[in-house]
Structures are given as structure tokens and as C-alpha cells.
């Protein structure tokens, strides 16, 4: 089991947990809030928005962590090998803690309007300050997107340079080193595709539901 506790796998596990919670928590709450006259009140509506924000923020944070992980693995392989799993666990934990705190701050107006006397809440709308909405877009989309693009651009440049170096010095590089480098590049490519689909989905969804 310890063999699988690599830095990348720990971050992927965190992302898998956030996706699983979307199916187990957010989707049922969304179904309940859509059928507004079956015990739905402002509390359930607020919980739906809260978990949506927490899990979205955590997923975006995990995407950034994966980008940093691949960047260090490709660009600084010696430093990457010295990173201990417990440090990654701390980073993942901080990602979740910050997501929870950030979501509570962002939705404080929504929670201030909870009314337990309403058993049939007809409109599960999100009450959020206009400035907070702008900040949320910057913090959870534009800044992470910029970081991911910059890091993966750097990874691509270094990967191409290293591939050329390996081809020109294939006789002097051990097969084990070549295999390790190819493995890291395949991981970077696969995770890059995952991040690309996530970003496409994050961009298209607001347009569809606008």
C-alpha cells in the first residue's frame, strides 16, 4: 500500500474524493431543491450552494497542485525525488481547509437569510455580493487557469528539450534513466489532458446555463 503513496497519487486521490462527494452530496441536494415543495427550505438550498462551492474550489486547488507536481517532477527531478508524501498530505489538507473557509466567507449572506419556517422554498437562488462574485471568478478560475497554463507551458518546453537531449546522447544515458523520464512525461501528458477537459467543462457550463 505504501508503494502507491506517491505525491501524484495522493493528489489524484484528493481529486477523486471531491468528485465522489459531488455525486453523493451535491447531486442529491440538487434533486431535492428542484422539487421545491417536498420539504425543501432555505437551509437545504444553502447547503447545496455551500457544498458546490467547497467541492469546486477543492477540485480547482487539486488541479493546481497536480500542475505544480508535474512541473517539479519534469523541471527539477532531483528535488522532486526528495519530496516526502507527508508534505503533499499537508498541501492537500490546506487545499481543503482553504476551500471550506473561502466558501463560508463567500456565502455568508446566503446563510444569514436561512428561514426554517419555510417548508416550500420556491426559488433556490444564490445570494452573493457583486464584488465577491467578481473575486470568486478571479480566485477560482482566472488565477488557477493562468498558473496551470504557465506551468504546463514550462513543462512542455523542458520535455521537448530533454527528449532532444536523450536522442542525441542515447548511448551515454542509462536505460533506467530514460525509462523514468519517459514515465514522468507520460504522466504529465495524461494529467494535462485531464486538466484540459476540466477547464473546457468549466468554461462551457456557465455559457450553457446562462
Automatic annotation (TrEMBL):
Sections of the chain in a coiled coil: none
Q: Where in the cell is it found?
A: Cell membrane
Which superkingdom, per the lineage? Eukaryota
Is Metal-binding tagged as a keyword?
no
What cellular-component terms does GO give this entry?
plasma membrane
Q: What PANTHER family does this protein map onto?
A: HISTAMINE RECEPTOR-RELATED G-PROTEIN COUPLED RECEPTOR, TRACE AMINE ASSOCIATED RECEPTOR 19P-RELATED
- What family is reported? Belongs to the G-protein coupled receptor 1 family.
Please report the record's description of how this protein sits within the membrane.
Answer: Multi-pass membrane protein
Q: Which residues form the G-protein coupled receptors family 1 profile domain?
A: 1-210
GO MF terms here are: trace-amine receptor activity
- Gene3D superfamilies linked: Rhodopsin 7-helix transmembrane proteins
Annotated keywords: Cell membrane, G-protein coupled receptor, Membrane, Receptor, Transducer, Transmembrane, Transmembrane helix
In Swiss-Prot or TrEMBL terms, this protein is called G-protein coupled receptors family 1 profile domain-containing protein
Q: What coarse category fits the chief subcellular location reported for this protein?
A: membrane
Amino acid at each position: 500500500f505504501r508503494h502507491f503513496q506517491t505525491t501524484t497519487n495522493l493528489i489524484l486521490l484528493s481529486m477523486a474524493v471531491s468528485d465522489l462527494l459531488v455525486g453523493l452530496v451535491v447531486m442529491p441536494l440538487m434533486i431535492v431543491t428542484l422539487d421545491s415543495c417536498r420539504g425543501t427550505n432555505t437551509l437545504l438550498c444553502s447547503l447545496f450552494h455551500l457544498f458546490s462551492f467547497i467541492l469546486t474550489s477543492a477540485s480547482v486547488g487539486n488541479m493546481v497542485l497536480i500542475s505544480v507536481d508535474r512541473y517539479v517532477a519534469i523541471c527539477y527531478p532531483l528535488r522532486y525525488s526528495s519530496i516526502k508524501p507527508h508534505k503533499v498530505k499537508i498541501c492537500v489538507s490546506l487545499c481543503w481547509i482553504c476551500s471550506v473557509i473561502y466558501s463560508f466567507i463567500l456565502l455568508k449572506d446566503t446563510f444569514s437569510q436561512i428561514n426554517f419556517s419555510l417548508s416550500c422554498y420556491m426559488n433556490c437562488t444564490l445570494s452573493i455580493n457583486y464584488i465577491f462574485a467578481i473575486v470568486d471568478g478571479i480566485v477560482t478560475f482566472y488565477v488557477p487557469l493562468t498558473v496551470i497554463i504557465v506551468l504546463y507551458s514550462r513543462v512542455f518546453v523542458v520535455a521537448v528539450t530533454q527528449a532532444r537531449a536523450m536522442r542525441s546522447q542515447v548511448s551515454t544515458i542509462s536505460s533506467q534513466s530514460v525509462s523514468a523520464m519517459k514515465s514522468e512525461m507520460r504522466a504529465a501528458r495524461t494529467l494535462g489532458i485531464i486538466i484540459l477537459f476540466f477547464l473546457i467543462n468549466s468554461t462551457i457550463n456557465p455559457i450553457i446555463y446562462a
